[in-house]
Amino acid sequence: MASITIRHLEDDIKQRLRVRAAERGRSMEEEARDILRRAMGDADSPRDLAAAIRARVAPAARVDLDVPAREPMRQPPQLGRRLR
Predict the structure, then answer these.
(1) How many CB atoms neighbour CB 15 within 10 A?
(2) pLDDT in tens, 21-60
(3) 80 lies in a domain?
(4) Which of 48, 60, 76, 79 is buried most, with the most CB atoms less than 10 Å from its CB?
């Protein structure tokens, strides 16, 4: 296992970490490990662009559009005849 030292950590952040760890009944070290595990776990998952777009637009209101009636398809041109 590796160790890490975090220098110049703001007092406010350290205090909030201490309170958060106490609320969960663990040490500050264990709370920091858990925060890092969860943050890095998101980076390991493969990115699915379609799923990310769907998740982002899903909460938005949906709009149903009327599909216009289609006209019959026209006859294709006759290409077999030669012009003289």
Answers:
(1) 10
(2) 999 999 999 999 999 988 887 655 567 888 888 888 877 7
(3) no
(4) 48
